Amino acid sequence: MGLLYNVYLSGGRIYGCRQCKTHLANHDDIISRNFRGQHGKAFLFDNVVNITASEPGDRNMTTGRHTVRDITCRQCKETVGWKYDRAYEQSEKYKEGKFILEAELLCIVT
Predict the structure, then answer these.
(1) CA–CA separation, 12 vs 33, rounded Å?
(2) Alpha carbon distance 27, 55 (integer Å)
(3) Could you give the CA distance from residue 42 to residue 106 in angstroms, rounded to a whole number?
(4) Is 0.90 surpassed by the pTM of this model?
(5) pLDDT tens across 20-78, in order?
(6) C-beta of residue 87 within 8 angstroms of C-beta of residue 64
(7) In angstroms, rounded to a whole number, what is the distance separating the alpha carbons of residues 80 and 1?
(8) What is the maximum alpha-carbon separation in the chain?
């Protein structure tokens, strides 16, 4: 398999893992700030780096049923959010392939 190298993002505001400060997402990739996670406020991102995704599973959420994968920081293995694989409701299809990062589990790196 070889070594996995972390991706280092550049730009104005970079969100990182609260535990180890590993870069996760660029502020410019936020699609929506109007989400809630288990720990409160959460953001919907178009692109996230340096994560590992679990096996997919169906969950009943506030907005309906979705197939999601928990995502963890690749460096320290801390859970930071989830990825939407499938939305069963037509109005929620825009979430497919997108990522939720929970604000409580993030820090501003730069």
Answers:
(1) 18
(2) 27
(3) 10
(4) yes
(5) 999 999 999 999 999 998 889 999 999 999 999 999 999 999 899 999 999 999 999 99
(6) yes
(7) 24
(8) 41
